[in-house]
Amino acid sequence: MKTLKYFVYICSICLLTSCYEDEGNYDYHAINEVGVEGVPEIQEIDQFETLTITPVLEGTLYGADESNYEYEWKLNNKIISTERNLEYLVSNGTGSYTLRYSVIDKNNQTKAFATTKLIVNSATSSDGILVVSNQHGVADLSYLRLDKENANFMTMFYNKNHEAPLAHNPRQLYQSYNDGYKNFAAKFGGKGIKLICDEGLLCINNLTLEPNGYIDEEYFLTYGSLYPVPDYSSWNPEYVNSFVSQWRLSPYGSIFNNENLNVISGGAIYVIAFSRNSNPSIYTSNFTGETPGTYKFSPMMCITGRTPTADRGMNLNAGWDGTYEEFVFDENSGKFFVFYYEEMNEVDANGKSFPGYRAFYGEDTYQYEFCFAALTNGSNVKFATFDSKYYLDNNVVYDVDAPIATEKSRFFMLRNVPYVYFNTESAIYKYNVLNVQSQIAPSEADRICKLSDLGYDGNAKIADVCMHRNEKKMLLAVSKYGNDTEGNSDELKTDIVEISLEGSTPTLLNKYPSVAGASPLVIYKYRTFARNDERMVD
Q1: Structure pTM?
Q2: What pLDDT was estimated at residue 291?
Q3: Which of 49, 219, 424, 522 is most deeply packed, by most CB within 10 A?
Q4: What architecture (CATH level 2) is domain 34-121?
């Protein structure tokens, strides 16, 4: 113990001696201090817009010399850039994120930080213009939101932000709804965009534009008939449409919808009946009649009639009520039929037929259960009209040759007057459907607009059209790809043109140049089924 005390004493003396011998030879180094300005504390941005931040840096030693700095931008701890200034395409999902900017001194690894709360808002949930087209043989999306003034088209954005491609060879783009019961959106494929492509019938979320699974054989085995199990091996969707039945719980609002989704696949009929409070009911038949193989239905299936829903409370002009009967065309017999689940009835009382023809368009008209259809045999097009009241014994199908139209023409029926719009590759026509019975064929006198009127030359063609539900304007997908259906050029060569249909002559509203690839399909995408004009409260 005593020895230990002496040892501690000696050590203390040595330490004190060392201190007294210190002559003060210290080498002090000033530390650079960096100030970061110009990085906002909170930043809101829409999906698929570019976030640009240009920080202002002030260093105590280096001044304007920033060669000794390194930079790092982290979004939720993931490095998204190592540049001084940030330019970042925000493809993240909606929500709140932490964005952190670091300035690193390379000499001593000291850091200065600035943090931003980044709020990402949806860019696709509103009403908009949706285009599906090909680029290098792969389908992609372009989109323009209509709720934001001076918004720009998001061009071919899906494949840039996903590992797997959207689809291949898109053939029909269609919007269905079923917004009465929220679980359908995620679970049953309702309330969304439908895309027929090589992969099948793809459901795309109406709000996010993200894929929402396929209606396929597995889907039918899950929700279809368990016994006897239908044969779904030939499932290959060719055509899809739907009808929404809408009613109100009270005069003050509460809207509930049921929806029938109708599909033609392999010449067979499939009906998916969505109810707002139960699993979907599936009706299918590979023949629909009593004898297998009797019928082969064209890719066209439409309700026979609809009427506007009653005006109640604030929900004025909200939608349609109608029949659940569909008219179809059987290519084997060349006849029109009215179909109701598994009951088939010929439309024409005298058995009139169109051998060698197939129907490629059909729609009910302004008059309840009065229908219009377009047929082709590959070289000739016919228009047909008929009364679809199958319980009557005097129905007659009238037809007229329509050489101006082609099997690539798209048609849009007006709801309150007897007119249908259709297109060729170079023009838009407006035809009175009552002229069919009078044997008056569509002619150049029915043409209302030429591509040349909109500033295009002979290299451009109308690849697709879509009418707004207010029937006051129309979209034209104008392609300059020629015979290139794959979109092999890196340059986008499809314009979207919006024209007004008000007045005697259509006028140009908007032209969006070079926003899509080859083989474009275009629709107006609506947020809800209910009409959202000045008379409607969504």
Answers
A1: 0.83
A2: 56
A3: 522
A4: Sandwich (2.60)
